Amino acid sequence: MASGRTLYDKIWDSHTVDILPTGQTQLFVGLHLIHEITTAPAFDMLRENGFKVAFPERTFATVDHIVPTDLRTRPFLDAEAETLIQVLEKNVGEFGIDFFGLDSDKQGIVHVIGPQLGLTQPGITLACGDSHTSTHGAFGTLAFGIGTSQVRDVLATQTLAIDRLKVRRINVNGSLPPGVYAKDVILNIIRKLGVSGGKGFAYEYGGAVLDRMSMEERMTVCNMSIEGGALVGYVNPDQTTFDFLRGREYVPKGEAFDRAVTYWKSVASDAGARYDDVVDVEGVKLEPTVTWGINPGQAVGISEKLPRPEEFPDPDGARKAYDHMGWSPGAPILGTPINVAFVGSCTNSRLSDLRAAAKIAQGKRVAPGIRALVVPGSAEVKTLAEKEGLHKIFTAAGFEWREAGCSMCLAMNPDRLQGREICASSSNRNFIGRQGSPGGRTLLMSPAMVAAAALSGKVVDVREYLA
Amino acid sequence: MSNDSKITNVSGRAIVVRGNDIDTDRIIPARYLKEPTFARMGDYPFFDERFDAAGKTKPHPFNDPKFKGASLLFVNKNFGCGSSREHAPQALYRFGVHAVVGESFAAIFAGNCVMIGMPTVTVGEREIEDLMGLADSKPETSFALDIEAKRLAYDGKSIPVDIPETHRKALVDGSWDSTGMLRANLDKVKATAAKLPYMTGFRS
Ligand code: SF4
After folding, report:
1. Nearest CA in chain A to B78
2. What is the CATH number of the domain that holds B91?
3. Atom 2 of ligand 1, residue of closest alpha carbon
């Protein structure tokens, strides 16, 4: 009988402060990341109550959601955005929190900079007022998104009152065919298990495909756990993890690094760990995948036809998706015309993503009339990409090359869809209105697929470009 | 915690919003997250579904006069999925919704609701269909949600509802405003932190 413990069990237990009278666990938060959008009322509540930040050295702040990615001169043209940034600047100053602001070379999307700086480490708990905090689970971190009142609690106590989750092991077996990326893996997991299938679960991803993935690919998979309804997603730490972390700014050095690795190894799930559920996915069966609807579970392989509403447990939901998107069951997704192409977001804006897109774009031109944007996930990603000349490949092909931020993932800055535009996007959400226009339409896909769509002006099979 | 923060009952008329997987981007579009406080969130729930680009109202339950003043919201499956923005429950609460009854809720959304003292309770598919039908056809019907007893009473009958036990306790004990409870344990927090190898920089 399986009786070993999972990584989730181990980290949960070592971080449990107490069982509260409500039956919830008071859980210690090892690292707290904050940004400009979900924190201002939390600091206000602290001030109203006269509370201090309990462990200011365990919180780090950056700006990402609202920042313009073209003209960054202050004050911003958008007065509301300017105010919100100023509020954060004031709050971090007043409460003594380290801040990677717009003028810092460490600025970037919160889920990109945590790993890049080595703040994100195995065996810690990590919370952030953002649902894609699950990204950090790629490191064997117990990481999850929280709301603003919970941000207040973490600031005031470095703990949260929360409920334990069950653990579902997801094995991605075998290997991936060419042209199939980490993004396709997670889109297919969500399609298979549903957008609420992960409710109550942490997802532990493993199997041969995950074992061979780079850290950046693992981050892409963990990032979208929340789109499958799972608050937490993680991969057990291994040599790939340790090699990635070695030498990064906030990672211990020398002998302390060796001791850290010993700890990190100890938190991985035991060989005989007991799971509440196990799911298997065969990597070799996957193909480049595109969403056709209004949630990330409404996806098809590039060679498939759009499904009939009756094939879904919720036919009305599928009909609503067709109403919004304006296409019909039975049509191919291949060849769907696009207006905008967006490479970016905490799902796919790291160096390897930009390389994959640049490989497709190299020596080619964006189709006439298509607006194409590449938005690096962090200032550092931008610098590294420029060192390799990726920006030249993109701009020569007709893509715009921008400063780091969330940009058109949620369109809180000037980058947004207009009217009924259709966007091929490497981001994580295709919700109605998500990219800034109530009538806008989003097709989620891998960065390579986005680049291929930009060049063709329509949804194409990236494998044609790789041949 | 003081007794006045105990939430044991919510009663009133109900507003009906049908559909599964209604995400928080739909409940409150991202542009309203630019405001540094929650104060005006009550003006914005479902904004893009209620108003067109010119500001003209569109048919939506939140615009429908028959639901005006309702304090319960009836929804279907996986309500509140997507972004963790607490602006979503804040928008509903400040609009006047003080409890949500549905088939299921996304985890972060339900957690955020408890944190502001707004219960989310679940009922079965058939029950929600009945409740929605009744509130739609007889919007004057009054519903009484008893969190303590986990029951919803209306129209001379009473049905069981479900709520995670930890949420139920937090609401009825008045400890949903958790900061005080967590702060009372600060010594234990420090003791737990001291035992975590990374908290000392792996020095020993
Ligand atoms: S890139 Fe998109 S999903 Fe990621 S943190 Fe920014 S807004 Fe959220």
Report:
1. A196
2. 3.20.19.10
3. A409
